[in-house]
Write a structure and sequence with these properties.
61% of the residues lie in helices and 11% in strands. The protein is mostly helical. Among the domains are: 21-73, no CATH class; 75-151, Orthogonal Bundle (Arc Repressor Mutant, subunit A), CATH 1.10.10. The strands form two sheets. It has a three-stranded antiparallel β-sheet with strand order 3-5-4. It has a two-stranded antiparallel ribbon with strand order 1-2. The longest helix has 27 residues, at 47-73. The two termini are 39 Å apart.
């Protein structure tokens, strides 16, 4: 959806950058808006689009994936993350706390998502037979069927929107770079200043 303000160039709903051939330049310019003179003085050329491009492409792909899931399955990425983990678990069952840890979300957030899944009869909650304090979540047959269809749709979207636009050598480069960054020791927020 775009909107046009009197005489202004077209703008996107999410980031207010003009559409067209110069989108990458406008996305790169965000680096200077966010980091100011230090970035303008120290970055020589490709750093702004490398950084802001990473963030913008991740936002666009996530948004597109979410739209595919919502429009087709009335499910969110969080819902598919939970049901997908359950589909691979022994007896399609995990503790609610395990799901929260695996998803990197709070227990209360995961509990709210599980509430929605349970209302749709895609999962069932039961007390853990070996630990009365724990709650197990089990994927139902209906949930497994919906998960499989949603995973196929999401796979098709990722193939088209991401891998379909890259050369095999670019995929290898991205994989190597992201693996190195992910395996590096995290930099504490206070240490970077």
């Amino acid at each position: 959806m775009t909107e046009k303000l009197s005489g202004d160039p077209p703008r996107t709903r999410s980031d207010a950058t003009p559409l067209g051939a110069g989108v990458a330049a406008h996305v790169a310019a965000r680096a200077f808006h966010m980091m100011g003179p230090a970035a303008e003085q120290e970055w020589t050329g490709t750093e702004p689009i490398a950084w802001e491009g990473l963030l913008e492409v991740a936002r666009q792909l996530r948004r597109g994936a979410e739209e595919v899931l919502i429009e087709t399955f009335d499910a969110s990425i969080s819902m598919l993350g939970i049901t997908g983990r359950l589909s691979r678990a022994p007896k399609r069952t995990l503790r609610q706390t395990e799901l929260a840890d695996a998803m990197g979300l709070s227990l209360s957030r995961v509990s709210r998502v599980i509430d929605l899944l349970e209302q749709r009869r895609l999962v069932q909650r039961r007390a853990c037979p070996t630990d009365a304090r724990a709650t197990n979540v089990t994927l139902t047959r209906q949930g497994a069927a919906l998960t499989a269809r949603a995973q196929r749709a999401l796979f098709s979207y990722v193939q088209a929107a991401f891998f379909g636009r890259l050369e095999p050598s670019e995929v290898e480069t991205l994989a190597a770079v992201f693996a190195r960054l992910l395996d590096a020791e995290p930099i504490a927020p206070g240490r970077a200043c």
